């Protein structure tokens, strides 16, 4: 089937790839009023959850809430298809708490496919792209079986650029198991002058749920009252499904250790760099040789389906060894394999070649989003996708790029890290990467980013009015806390005590009772934000002061085309790195590896003295 007619061959924007990045990019473009073409190798793999069918997690949950606040679809799809919802790190402070949901991967795919089918202004066609077409240094379209013309192109190729799958000694050309690889697009990008790298990721075996002995394993249930991901979802109604936990053991480790001579990761067969923070089981056993066990989460891939995802034992060792080590694990002694684990190597565009808008520096109108930029994870991909879509629209409208600062959102941290650090391994988001994580919580993403969404034309008036009312209630409640007293002590001071909850104060305050009559009311999410902002007021104030200091560096703009070799007082490494990354501001320059504080001082003196490149 085809979503829409293929007769039209010219569009405002063309998005290549219908994974998590491509979907958010295409929807953003169409919703902002641009005629948009989304090209996918197969309709059946739209929004494919090729690894773990889960959304969110530590820091990733913040990204999903931010995508939702910008008008994206990932959170809504998760609420629709989720089979287990949990808030992680509830025993720690609000800065590091994150939502996570296990999803039914088939329902997730069908939801996203339906959204794409029904989106006005969006055409979806099955086509493999082989070439990016340019005139001079500007894109004009892409070529597959047909030629499609566009004013801007967004590439979201995932692991499909020269993908190579490894299972033991076997090497299989493919973007995912049983799916073709895009073999020509890499050569096209190289011919345009872009430098490519090669990365590796992997996935664990899938087992038949009926062959697992859950009776001897520890059950992990979801939250009793699940919290939705999307700010537009009122309540999660569907029944939740438990996961289970087991562990590797000494016998498991010995089986793997004995067969490392057949593991592609250690024979030299795999040459690309894999994710440091999500290593394969063979890598864990070598790197953490002192550990006697590693935790495994057995996570269902959907309702009424047999597949169980074995989170924690990603591997590319041979099939016979996979069987042997899996059968040594408690509860999995008789497990039947539905699919073996594998590793995959794929091409990426080294991200120092993109700017904060995700447009390539060499090729005007060419945007990159997702794993092509060296990231890992659905959430990181989707976050880049929506930003690339927004900026592609703004590009063809000749508007300034929409760029989020590190103090605005985790999305800002993600993109800034890509364009200043140029990761050499698959990049994964963590709360520790965000300097201002107390301000960038998952609970307040709507208040941080929906005002931007409104200005971009991606938020309807109903949601805008609801947000405005919510903000007014929060400010009114905080004012009440500051002005009301109990036994001579302000309610604000009382609430700052760790053991006191806002509910304890609301029931005894007439002023709060009036707020309860408001149509928006003091719901749990509003009360949660009021509590956090009052209890952590001192810390929040300090972070806001730090942001103001950092803004001075970010506002100190650097010329885009200067040759840093002429600034002889810079260190040699700084000149090389600054010419490579071409930072847009002094703040961005300060985060580039190899640029020292003394180099920053040199830049400030140089540009402050009135050279021809003066700001």
Commentary on this structure:
- The protein is globular, with a radius of gyration of 25 Å.
- The model is unreliable at 610-615 (pLDDT under 50).
- Helix 12 runs antiparallel to helix 13 (461-483).
- It has four domains: 10-200 and 346-455, FAD/NAD(P)-binding domain, CATH 3.50.50.60; 206-344, Elongation Factor Tu (Ef-tu), domain 3, CATH 2.40.30.260; 462-542, tRNA uridine 5-carboxymethylaminomethyl modification enzyme MnmG/GidA (Arc Repressor Mutant, subunit A, Orthogonal Bundle), CATH 1.10.10; 555-608, DNA polymerase, domain 1, CATH 1.10.150.
- It contains 21 helices and 22 strands.
Provide a quick synopsis of the model.
With 615 residues, this protein is α+β, with helices and mostly antiparallel strands.
| Mean pLDDT reading | 93
Named at the architecture level, the CATH assignment of the largest domain is 3-Layer(bba) Sandwich
**CATH class bucket of the largest domain:** Alpha Beta
Shape: globular
Count of extended strands? 22
Q: In the CATH scheme, what's the topology name of the largest domain?
A: FAD/NAD(P)-binding domain
Instruction: Name the CATH superfamily assignment of the largest domain.
Output: FAD/NAD(P)-binding domain
Q: Round the Cα radius of gyration to an integer and report it.
A: 25 Å
User: How much of the residues is beta strand, in percent?
Assistant: 15-25%
Structurally, the number of domains stands at: 4
Largest sheet: 7 strands, mixed
List segments where confidence is low: pLDDT < 50 over at least 5 consecutive residues: 610-615
């Amino acid at each position: 089937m085809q979503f829409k007619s293929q007769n039209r061959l010219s569009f405002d924007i063309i998005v290549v790839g219908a994974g998590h990045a491509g979907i958010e990019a295409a929807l953003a473009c169409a919703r902002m009023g641009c005629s948009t073409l989304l090209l996918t190798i197969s309709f059946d793999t739209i929004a494919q959850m090729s690894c773990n069918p889960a959304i969110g997690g530590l820091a990733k949950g913040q990204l999903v809430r931010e995508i939702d606040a910008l008008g994206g679809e990932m959170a809504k799809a998760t609420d629709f298809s989720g089979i287990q919802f949990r808030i992680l790190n509830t025993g720690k402070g609000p800065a590091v708490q994150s939502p996570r949901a296990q999803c039914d991967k088939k329902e997730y795919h069908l939801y996203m496919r339906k959204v794409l089918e029904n989106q006005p202004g969006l055409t979806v066609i099955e086509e493999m792209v082989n070439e990016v077409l340019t005139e001079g240094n500007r894109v004009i379209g892409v070529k597959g079986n047909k030629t499609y013309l566009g004013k801007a192109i967004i590439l979201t190729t995932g692991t499909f650029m020269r993908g190579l799958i490894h299972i033991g000694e076997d090497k299989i050309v493919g973007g995912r198991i049983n799916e073709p690889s895009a073999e020509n697009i890499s050569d096209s990008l190289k011919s345009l002058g872009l430098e490519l790298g090669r990365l590796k990721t992997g996935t664990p075996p899938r087992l038949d749920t009926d062959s697992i002995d859950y009776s001897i394993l520890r059950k992990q249930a979801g939250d009793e009252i699940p919290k939705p991901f999307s700010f537009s979802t009122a309540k999660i109604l569907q029944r939740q499904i438990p996961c289970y936990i087991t562990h590797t053991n000494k016998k498991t480790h010995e089986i793997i250790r004995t067969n490392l001579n057949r593991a592609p990761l250690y024979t030299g067969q795999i040459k690309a760099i894999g994710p440091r923070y999500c290593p394969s089981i063979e890598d864990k056993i070598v790197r953490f040789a002192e550990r006697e066990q590693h935790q495994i989460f057995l996570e269902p891939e959907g309702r009424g389906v047999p597949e169980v995802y074995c989170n924690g034992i990603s591997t590319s060792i041979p099939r016979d060894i996979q069987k042997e080590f899996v059968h040594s694990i408690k509860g999995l002694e008789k497990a039947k394999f539905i699919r073996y684990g594998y590793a995959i190597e794929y091409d990426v565009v080294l991200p120092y070649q993109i700017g904060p808008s995700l447009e390539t520096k060499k090729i005007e109108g060419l945007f990159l989003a997702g794993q092509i930029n060296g990231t890992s994870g659905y959430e990181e991909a989707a976050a880049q996708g929506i930003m690339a879509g927004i900026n592609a629209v703004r590009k063809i409208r000749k508007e300034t790029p929409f760029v989020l600062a590190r103090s605005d959102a985790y999305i800002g941290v993600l993109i800034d890290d890509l364009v200043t650090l140029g990761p050499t391994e698959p990049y994964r988001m963590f709360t520790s990467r965000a300097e201002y994580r107390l301000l960038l919580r998952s609970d307040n993403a709507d208040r941080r980013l929906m005002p931007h969404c409104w200005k971009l034309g991606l938020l309807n008036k109903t949601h805008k009015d609801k947000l405005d009312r919510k903000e007014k209630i929060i400010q009114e409640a905080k004012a009440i806390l500051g002005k009301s007293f109990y036994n001579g002590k302000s309610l604000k001071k009382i609430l700052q005590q760790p053991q006191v909850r806002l509910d304890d104060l609301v029931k005894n305050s007439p002023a709060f009772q009036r707020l309860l009559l408001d149509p928006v009311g003091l719901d749990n999410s509003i009360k949660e934000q009021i509590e956090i902002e009052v209890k952590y007021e001192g810390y929040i104030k300090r972070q806001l002061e730090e942001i103001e200091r950092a803004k001075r560096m970010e506002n100190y703009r650097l010329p885009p085309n200067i040759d840093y070799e002429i600034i002889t007082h810079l260190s040699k490494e700084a000149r090389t790195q600054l010419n490579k990354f071409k930072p847009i501001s002094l703040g961005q320059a300060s985060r580039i590896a190899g640029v020292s504080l003394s180099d920053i001082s040199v830049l400030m003196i140089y540009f402050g003295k009135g050279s021809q490149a003066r700001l």
